[in-house]
Amino acid sequence: MDLEIQQRVKDLAEKYGPENIVVLLGGAEAEAAGLSAETVTAGDPTYAGPLAGVSLGLRVYHVLEDDVKKEYDPKVYDEQCSMMEMVLDVDAIVKEVKPIRDQYCKYL
Amino acid sequence: MFRVVHYINQFFGQIGGEDKAGIGPQVKEGIVGPGMALKQALKDEAQIVATVICGDSYFNENIEKAKAEILDMIRKYSPDIFIAGPAFNAGRYGVACGTICKAVKEELGIPAVTGMYIENPGADMFKKDIYIISTRNSAVGMRDAVPKMAKLAVKLAKGYDIGSPSEEFYIERGIRKNYFAQYRGSKRAVDMLVKKIRGEAFKTEYSMPTFDRVKPNPPVLDISKAVVALVTSGGIVPKGNPDRIESSSASKFGKYSIEGVLDLTENEYQTAHGGYDPVYANQDADRVLPVDVMREFEREGVIGKLHNYYYATVGNGTSVANAKKYGAKIAAELKNDGVDAVILTST
Questions:
Q1: Domains and CATH numbers, chain B
Q2: How far is A66 from chain B (nearest CA, A)?
Q3: pLDDT, tens digit (0-9, with 9 covering 90-100), for B5-22
Q4: Number of domains forming the structure of chain A
Q5: pLDDT of B121-161, one tens digit each?
Q6: pLDDT at B168
Q7: How far is C-alpha B299 from the geometric centre of its chain's CA atoms?
Q8: For residue A7, which residues of chain B lie inside 8 Å, CB to CB?
Q9: Which residue from A minimizes the CA distance to B36?
Q10: Which contacts (CB < 8 Å, 24+ apart) does range B156-163 have?
Q11: N or C: which end of chain A has fewer CB within 10 A?
Q12: Best mutation site among B9, B137, B140 for testing chain A: the one with the most A CBs within 10 Å?
């Protein structure tokens, strides 16, 4: 997750309280999604950004996960995400993101 | 408890990216960035007393000066261990880590460890002199690399025997050590040969070094009649980067017509490269791909003709294997098109 976005997530968490924030990831790759999920929960695993050593423990989901799908307007989802759902390896993404959420999220 | 000084670049020092790569060395007491991971891995065996941060460009443009400045900083903290990086596949960072580790080891007599991806140019330059833990090619490998670096560093500080590269995860240094084997040499050799004949996997006891030597071509007979092409790894592309060449780890190269183009202007060309400050290349792409000068040469008859196409890719983090593949393809096309000579420009 790039350094500016880390800073923005950090600022938003400070402003609104980490318990009030949900991070939705859109990354196309399982490993990248996992890294982003780790960054906003346990802290930046590359130790390069503002979230290095900062465990925000935010709720984090990939946009294609079933756990959050029911929250969407199906029409919008169909328009924006259904194509990508067919193309991407959703199982691999969930396998990366879910364990990280279960382990590090403080607000489940 | 051992005292550790840690060296990192401006990026991991959380000062900034390429725009801050020119900063000179500075010391911060205690840990910064990856030092957090290192601290966990060192447990209570060692403590990071200071972190030296230096911009990658500053270091590589002023190697001797930077080396002396940094050694002075390190000396002040009288550490028992010096750890640099890990640098993963960042070339200038790798060279900085290697240079400093070697100097600390040889001039201060302090054990030094760093970490790099096997293709980092710094790995080849310094693997004989120092211990370089073999890492993945990006910071994704931080969690894996740091404990290995910490473990080896503490072992060195304690004066313990260091095991083989595969046991300690460092890049082979080309050092041979005697040991008592279970079977004599002739039996081991025959066993290996039998495996080889059967097509089974076997592990050599003495891997041959690989030399990547490129024979220079014969000189161009008459440059004033030659068709000369420009090829760059500096990422110069038509504005908007139509082929979407990646700013790092490029997965492709581009081929672009410069027929009738006398000068690369700010409005029509830019760089796609993410590994150097792009401001000056974007202002005037001729600084990386000198079309303007080549046109002058063409007019003055210094060269025969500038080839109608140039080729570009981004060298930043691009694997050697991919770079070779692009090079071979580009060379084959240029030969087909009757090009006599090529000028390669980097960044």
A1: 2-168 (3.40.50.2300), 223-345 (no CATH)
A2: 27
A3: 999 999 999 898 888 999
A4: 1
A5: 999 999 999 999 999 988 889 989 999 999 999 999 999 99
A6: 95
A7: 38
A8: none
A9: A53
A10: B156/B81, B156/B111, B156/B113, B156/B131, B157/B2, B157/B46, B157/B80, B157/B81, B157/B111, B162/B131
A11: C
A12: B140
Q: Pick from B43, B97, B104, B56: which is nearest to B77 by CA?
A: B104
Instruction: Report whether the peptide linkage leading into residue B86 is cis, meaning its omega lies within 30 degrees of zero.
Output: yes
Radius of gyration of chain B (CA): 24
Task: Please indicate whether, in this complex, the C-beta atoms of B34 and A49 are within 8 angstroms of each other.
Answer: no
Predicted TM-score (pTM) of the model is 0.72
Beta-bridge partner residues of A62: A25
Q: What is residue B80's predicted lDDT score, i.e. its pLDDT?
A: 97
The string over B197-224, giving b where at least 16 C-beta atoms fall within 10 Å of a residue's C-beta and e elsewhere, is: eeeeeeeeeeeeeeeeeeeeeeeeeeee
Q: Which DSSP string corresponds to B39-62?
A: HHHHTTTEEEEEEEEE-HHHHHHS
Residue ranges, chain B, pLDDT below 70: 209
Among B142, B246, B247, B251, the residue to mutate for chain A (most A Cβ within 10 A):
B142
Q: Which domain holds residue A54?
A: 3-104
CA distance A97 to chain B (A): 15
